[in-house]
What does this fold into?
Amino acid sequence: MVLRILFFGILFSLTSCSENSPEKVEVSKEEIKTPFTVADAKDLFLSKCTVCHGSDGKLCASQAKDLSISKLSDEEILDRIKHGKNAMPPFEGLIPEDQRKMLVSFVKTLKK
Ligand code: HEC
It folds into this structure.
């Protein structure tokens, strides 16, 4: 009898343990799914791009172009962020593609 209780005790603790792990997996899945918004792109711009472009895009440090008067198309902006040009470094390995695309949307909000 004592053995049987012990057996079920162990069985119970085993099942309660495995009940916990799918929960943890779900949490991390949700984190990955979190969409990257234009507001997030603004934060990214403020941390990675303002040294040269300034928070309004007009700083023009290190011969950077004024983003508020840029005439580039979406494709060209995306390409510039990916590959860089002259003093502008390439961000291909530093910023994932979906975030670079959202940066394009943010850069366009700097235009007057
Ligand atoms: C180290 C300085 C530097 C940093 C950091 C930088 N840029 Fe630039 N950026 C430049 C320079 C210099 C140019 C001009 C390149 C050229 O055409 O000669 C430029 C050009 C651009 C252009 C093209 C503008 C035009 O009309 O030709 C875009 C768009 C741009 N940058 C976006 C960004 C974004 C977004 C970031 C952050 C992820 C960023 N830059 C970070 C220096 C920088």
Remarks:
- The CA atoms of residues 54 and 60 lie 7 Å apart.
- The mean pLDDT is 84.
- The domain at 38-109 is CATH 1.10.760.10 (Cytochrome Bc1 Complex; Chain D, domain 2).
